[in-house]
Amino acid sequence: MPESRDRLVREVDFAAVYARSRTVGVYTDEMDRALFGSRVSEPVQVERPGTVFGPGFRPGLAGSRRPDLQMSRRRNPSRSRGIENGSAARSGDRRSDLPSWYPRTPLQDISAVIRAIERRRGRQGEGDGLEIGTPAVQGLRVSVDSFKTPNPVHLKQGKPKSPYTASSSAIKISPVPKLGKVQKLIHEIANQPSPGAECLTPEKKLLNSIDKVGEVVKQELEKLKRTPAAKRDEREKRVRTLMSMR
Amino acid sequence: MDMDYAHFMVTQGRKEKDNSVPSSPSSEAYKRLLAETLNLNRTRILAFKNKPPVPVELIPHQHTASASSTTHQAKPTKPRRHIPQVKQTSERTLDAPDLVDDFYLNLLDWGSSNVLAIALGSTVYLWDASTGSTSELVTVDEEHGPVTSVNWAPDGRHIAIGLNNSEVQLWDSASNKQLRTLKGGHRCRVGSLAWNDHILTTGGMDGRIINNDVRIRDHIVETYRGHTQEVCGLKWSASGKQLASGGNDNLIHIWDRSVASSSSPTQYLHRLEDHTSAVKALAWCPFQSNLLASGGGGGDRTIKFWNTHTGACLNSVDTGSQVCALLWNKNERELLSSHGFTQNQLTLWKYPSMVKTAELTGHTSRVLFLAQSPDGCTVASAAGDETLRFWNVFGDPNEAAKKSAPKKNQEPFAWANRIR
């Protein structure tokens, strides 16, 4: 049985009504009635505010729909306008925490992924405390110089230089050369099940590069320890200690 | 410990070695026999002994004062269950893409056959909790969808699916076949479903509640009118005598089949108007038959308890955020509520004190739907962040399995009426 409709034909200025309701921010009943007649049969979510429905639009026809509406509905299955759902403007384009490139399979187990994302979020919360802008980068340059770490550019080549060379050539921690390697890293991570590269801001990249530099320094120190001269020194030290205990 | 022997063993050995006098075989034998009789053959000084004797009590039990004797009793009357804290993190998380972020729908249900049904967009998926496998039940046409409610029948095999176009489909999950479509009852989407044996009660956006007998052709047996806006919460009591419904009109109605059938002007038994927002969260108490818990939406944020015989409100608790769903613990006196903005948490309350026992966080958007496993231990929650999380909030499933297993062994021939 067809539903009853408001039979009185009223002149409605759709644009004005729409503009009014837009300023309020909530999809009002008034707008409902103006656009769809007195009785709303189906919930329709207006994705793009620009679309205005002409007088030719008839409510209650389940089949006919404007194509753009249909497209947006497929992407975001319609959410009714009720008060509990908040304003219509709050359309969730990407409601999920998963990165956009992550393949979505219904009911796939993503426990590990979500845990990793939560951990990263926790770390980000801590990391935001360090304000990293250009002044800090300068500071980094200075501190790295004093350490006389190997040239970070060498990381890419994989050839470590001895850190104790006198050359204190300007060790730049410029983010530009780093990006190449870091982007490669991102792709690597993307191929693995574990994520976490979607929010690599320049600051994050810097921090990552600092970590890498630290690791390389540690490796260099280990290597030094293994050289014969270092071993001899250590042995002598030990012998001296033992002799003193006699 | 034999102190003499110990002393001998420790000191005597040296003397023997100093003795260089050659000894004849007979004297050797004599020495050996002597050692045996004197029990000097032991190689060990220290040896294990039996249990120490029970210490003799100076004053026996029975004669002490009664106060101290009670301390020797085995256990207090109420054994504490939750010695370990309720685990605050989800056991597992499943992806739920295209989950409709609509407060008024009911897209999640866990059937008695331990299969979880969830509607993502226009498709209903079944997840077998025992195997962890996923299967697609049905994808409805774009024009009919999206799916607005799912509900398992009590047998755990049949499932009802409410659609946006006001129809309800009945499916057999075992054979993956559609059994029938209920049409003509509602005029708007069917957002809530509830089973009562062979009666499927449907609630629509038109405010109507319809009882459908799924066995007969003319399925509409009764229509309850009372709500003026969408019916989002619908729950039958455990006895099947009373039906609770909550709507976007902030009302809760209690329908009693005996009252409704009589020709009274209003079909409902009670109309509860205390909430100031939409009521979707409804849960009947498993250990008190006429107790109903209800939760209000964003503007109300309270959980209220009702006596459904008298219609009186027993208690009201402000939770601080939108209450989307409620679940009772079948084994303990606890209530679980799921919330929206800002924390999107699940809160576990002790009943009747309504003290917060635990708060489970993890979801990053409002926790819209809750479902309970058939064994009563695990709760599944689906939220607007497109994830489905599982929480062992009502108990450890392993412990529950252990508890239930010995019960089965008690009566080996329970299935037989006579043994002969």
Automatic annotation (TrEMBL), chain A:
Top-level lineage group: Eukaryota
One biological process term in Gene Ontology: regulation of nuclear division
Transmembrane segments: none
Entry-linked InterPro entries: POLYCHOME/GIG1 (IPR034590)
Coiled-coil regions listed: none
Region annotation (Disordered) ranges: 47-103, 148-168, 227-246
A GO CC term attached to the entry: nucleus
PANTHER family: PROTEIN POLYCHOME
Protein name in the entry: Protein POLYCHOME
From TrEMBL, chain B:
SUPFAM superfamilies: WD40 repeat-like
One cellular component term from this protein's GO annotations in UniProt: anaphase-promoting complex
GO MF entry, a single one: anaphase-promoting complex binding
Keyword Cell cycle attached: yes
Biased composition (Basic residues): 75-84
UniProt GO BP: anaphase-promoting complex-dependent catabolic process; cell division; positive regulation of anaphase-promoting complex-dependent catabolic process
Pfam family, one: WD40_CDC20-Fz
CDC20/Fizzy WD40 domain ranges (all copies): 94-391
Signal peptide: none
Source organism, top-level taxon: Eukaryota
Positions of WD repeats: 140-181, 224-256, 360-393
Extent of Polar residues compositional bias: 63-74
CDD domains the record matches: WD40
Keyword Cell cycle recorded: yes
InterPro entries: Cdc20/Fizzy (IPR033010), WD40/YVTN_repeat-like_dom_sf (IPR015943), WD40_CDC20-Fz (IPR056150), WD40_repeat_CS (IPR019775), WD40_repeat_dom_sf (IPR036322), WD40_rpt (IPR001680)
Family statement: Belongs to the WD repeat CDC20/Fizzy family.
Functional note: Component of the anaphase promoting complex/cyclosome (APC/C), a cell cycle-regulated E3 ubiquitin-protein ligase complex that controls progression through mitosis and the G1 phase of the cell cycle.
UniProt-recorded name of the protein: CDC20/Fizzy WD40 domain-containing protein
Species per Swiss-Prot/TrEMBL record: Linum tenue
